[in-house]
Each structure stands twice: as structure tokens, then as C-alpha cells.
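ugh ok fine here u go
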Amino acid sequence: MKLPAILQGEARTRFLQGIAFGAVATMAIGFMWGGWVTGENARIMRNTAETSGRMSVLVPLCVAQFSAADGALAKFKAASAYSRENVVSEFVKNVASTNMDYSFARACATGIETELASAATKS
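structure:
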């Protein structure tokens, strides 16, 4: 069987070099500008999106539940900025079957601060 001219001699070397260069260039462009990600980065992005979506639903519920508790807002205002998530955890144990952890308490405290700031500007 006779090989085509592109696969013979110097042309064969250049052809294989072109394939290798094209593969490397495709991968480099794909990962840098094409939006390709590794499996680990995809897992991290999925977890971040899941947490963000869950928090966007649960934080307003937490704020409402906290605001409804007796004496919660007064204790929240009196607490230092570093201990406000502890005050939130004290008054709100869980929201919609989700237990209160530090990141959730911190997000809820931020939501309460935002609500208090918007109520202050309306007054």
C-alpha cells in the first residue's frame, strides 16, 4: 500500500507537528478563553451556586423569623459586629429544616443589618 504524499518524509513530520500544535492550541484557547473547566472547578462552582441559591431563599425567611422573636432586635443592636451571628443562632435554631451553621448565621446577620439600615433610612 502506498502512503499519500503528506505522510511521507518531511511532509509527514510537518503534518504530525501540525496536529500536535493544533491540539495544544485548542486546549490552551479552550481553557483560557473558551470557558472550559476541570472537574474539580466544576464541582466547586456547582457547590457555590447551590449554596448561593439556597441562601437567597433561606435568608429572608431567617430575617423574618428573627424579627418576630421577642427581644431579638434589641439584643442584636446591642451586640458587637463580631458576635451578631451568635445572637442570630441563639434566637433562630433552624429555618425550613435547615440547621443554623456559622455561614448561614453570618448571612442572616447581614440580612438583618440590611433590613435595619433600610428601616432607618425610611424613618
